[in-house]
Specification:
The chain has 2 domains: 18-181, Rossmann fold (3-Layer(aba) Sandwich), CATH 3.40.50; 200-303, K homology (KH) domain (GMP Synthetase, Chain A, domain 3, 2-Layer Sandwich), CATH 3.30.300.20. A hairpin with a 3-residue loop joins strand 2 (58-63) and strand 3 (67-73). It starts with 17 loop residues before the first strand and ends in a 6-residue tail after the last helix. It has helices at 32-40, 83-96, 114-123, 142-153, 172-181, 200-215, 249-256, 261-278, 298-303; strands at 18-25, 58-63, 67-73, 101-107, 130-135, 161-163, 225-233, 238-246, 282-290. Helix 6 runs antiparallel to helix 8 (261-278). By secondary structure, the protein is α/β, with parallel strands linked by helices. The longest helix is centred in the last third of the chain and has 18 residues, at 261-278.
Length: 309
């Protein structure tokens, strides 16, 4: 993925071309980030089995012959337990009022639950068209497909339903066509080959946090934030210096590991992903810093970019 220093000229859009913004909304861990990556064909959002993986409203760009969809991957809507959680939910709810189309993603391998009902109620007064994607279709027993679909049909007020699999892409082309049809007519908003407009620092920080999520357990994943301190392009390779923030000294010890093994493992995995992103060799240096209760500190959250906007 390249990070252009200048904005290239946009192409002339054909007659009837559609463009606009689509918000991906849903509970934590329903596969929003996985679906986003599947749709654009590149990794622009981190994924993990840990709930509340997404913290920023990431934007991915999907361009077809007929439309350009700017997809917003929002944090999962949940009951917050600290200021960070409140700002994540605020960010997701704010996105609902700022887009042309809303895509509510649910775990279609399970019947509709109370959490889904809460979000449906939240979207009842949404002015934008709402579509419902029943994700994890690859896990659904065909004998239960009708029963599961019916549980969601009874929950939503006539919104279009789309069975999909974010994992293998089943049903995604039909989903994209349906979303595009509800976008307003308009020109290209980004170059056709763009897949994201996120700052390089944010994407690199997220790749480090993803490795923390994959390599640690218990309270560690939720207590971690990553700051990119410096990016230096020194010719044949890119040097990245980053700080991993935790809330307690015990968490710092776990992240570093015996003889520094855990931090080396995290750094190695992040470096491999960064090299794919930057398309070149990367030198990554990680530091771990204890910042007590950073998730409850408004100034620190704003510094890290968690503003709720």
């Amino acid at each position: 993925m390249e990070f252009p220093t200048a904005i290239p000229a946009l192409p002339t859009s054909p007659a009837g071309f559609r463009s606009g913004f689509v918000a991906l909304i849903g509970r934590p861990n329903v596969g929003k980030s996985t679906l986003l990556n599947q749709l654009v064909g590149e990794k622009v959002a981190i994924t993990s089995p840990v709930a509340q993986t997404t913290r920023n409203r990431l934007r991915a760009i999907l361009t077809t012959e007929a439309a350009q969809l700017v997809l917003l991957d929002t944090p999962g809507i949940h009951k917050p337990h600290h200021l960070l959680g409140e700002r994540l939910v605020q960010s997701a709810r704010r996105a609902i009022g700022e887009v042309d189309v809303v895509l509510l993603l649910v775990d279609g391998s399970e019947p509709a639950g109370r959490g889904d009902g809460f979000i449906v109620e939240l979207l009842q007064h949404c002015r934008a068209p709402v579509h419902l994607a029943l994700n994890k279709n690859d896990l659904v027993d065909p004998a239960r497909a009708e029963e599961l679909g019916q549980s969601y049909s009874e929950l939503v007020p006539g919104w279009p339903l789309h069975p999909v699999s974010a994992l293998n892409g089943r049903g995604t082309s039909e989903l994209v066509a349906a979303l595009a049809a509800d976008l307003p007519e308009g020109p290209h908003l980004y170059p056709p080959d763009a897949v994201s407009d996120q700052p390089e620092q944010l994407l690199l920080a997220e790749l480090i946090r993803e490795q923390v999520l994959h390599n640690t357990r218990e309270e560690i994943p939720h207590s971690v934030a990553v700051q990119i301190e410096r990016i230096v392009d020194d010719g044949p390779r890119t040097a990245v210096l980053a700080t991993v923030l935790v809330e307690r000294s015990s968490q710092k010890g776990i992240l570093i590991g015996k003889g520094g093994r855990m931090l080396k493992e995290i750094g190695s995995g992040a470096r491999q992903q960064m090299q794919k992103l930057i398309d070149g060799p990367v030198y990554l240096e990680l530091f771990v810093k204890v910042v007590p209760n950073w998730r409850r500190n408004a100034a620190r959250l704003s510094e890290l970019g968690y503003t709720g906007q």
